[in-house]
Write a structure and sequence with these properties.
It is a single chain. The chain has helices spanning 11-16, 19-26, 46-50, 86-89, 116-136, 172-183, and strands at 2-7, 30-34, 54-58, 68-72, 78-81, 94-99, 102-108, 143-148, 186-188, 202-203, 215-216, 219-224, 231-236, 248-252. With 253 residues, the chain is of the alpha+beta class.
Length: 253
């Protein structure tokens, strides 16, 4: 089974850039989407359905902002919208699809780059998200968490790490959280297969960052330890340009 995660930075714009053609070729079984920037009624599902996908959307109350989605070739047993905390659910940050024996989460972690207030919000989110998935593991020991974490976990996950140590997304306390999260029994799937540096999933639109490969790896397919033996491959598709992010994915089971 192939699972893709992709921050589209606006699903309607991605469609105009060739999203459907790529989906037809890539053919993931499940794709988790972040930053849809659309209300469900603004998303044309016709082509997704022609490609064999069932569609689920969780939009922010604020129009044109945030939002998550899951498209799946298999109908989930249950879909959960949000994690039961209004200040996060109002931003459409967590969408979950439960299948037989495992659960898939599309998550869009907040950014703290706009100032101290949002950075404080982000740090509280990280604590609350950890509690949420740890509780969920009691019902679903096999979790697949896909999304934009807005944090570079390792020094090799960012260009010029020394330059960014005081920048949101690479702050010591953010990396400390990520390590503590992994230590709870989660696996950064991509690093199971690739330890090379300069493997990124996001590039600023400024300064020709992508041609220069001055990027950040902030998108992840995180799995529970219980799925490590089922993980077959993990990959990044940097050649895609539908967004300032690129798709990441895993082959599992």
């Amino acid at each position: 089974m192939k699972i893709i995660s992709y921050n589209l930075n606006g699903i309607r714009a991605a469609v105009t850039k060739g999203l459907y053609d790529w989906l037809r070729t890539e053919a993931p079984d499940i794709m988790c989407i972040q930053e849809t920037k659309a209300q469900p009624e603004q998303i044309d599902e016709v082509e997704f359905r022609r490609l064999g996908y069932r569609c689920y959307w969780f939009s922010a109350k604020k129009k044109g902002y945030s939002g998550t989605g899951i498209i799946s070739k298999t109908e989930p047993r249950h879909v959960e919208y949000g994690m039961g905390i209004a200040k996060y659910d109002d931003e459409g940050r967590v969408l979950r699809a439960d299948y037989d024996g495992y659960s898939v989460i599309s998550v869009y972690h907040p950014s703290g780059s706009t100032g101290d207030e949002r950075q404080t919000f982000k740090m509280q989110w990280l604590e609350d998200f950890t509690a949420y998935v740890q509780e969920l593991r009691k019902s679903f020991p096999k979790l697949i968490i896909n999304g934009d974490f807005n944090i570079c976990r390792l020094w090799i996950d960012i260009n010029n790490p020394q330059k960014h140590e005081d920048v949101s997304g690479f702050l010591p306390e953010e990396r400390k959280w990520f390590q503590s999260f992994v230590d709870l029994g989660y696996v950064d799937s991509f690093r199971e297969f690739c330890q090379e540096e300069k493997q990124y999933s996001w590039w600023s639109y400024r300064g020709g960052a992508k041609p220069k490969n001055l990027g950040w790896r902030i998108d992840y397919n995180i799995i529970t330890d219980s799925l490590r033996a089922d993980l077959k491959d993990a990959f990044i598709r940097p050649e895609l340009n539908f967004s300032d992010h690129c798709p990441i994915g895993i082959e599992i089971f």
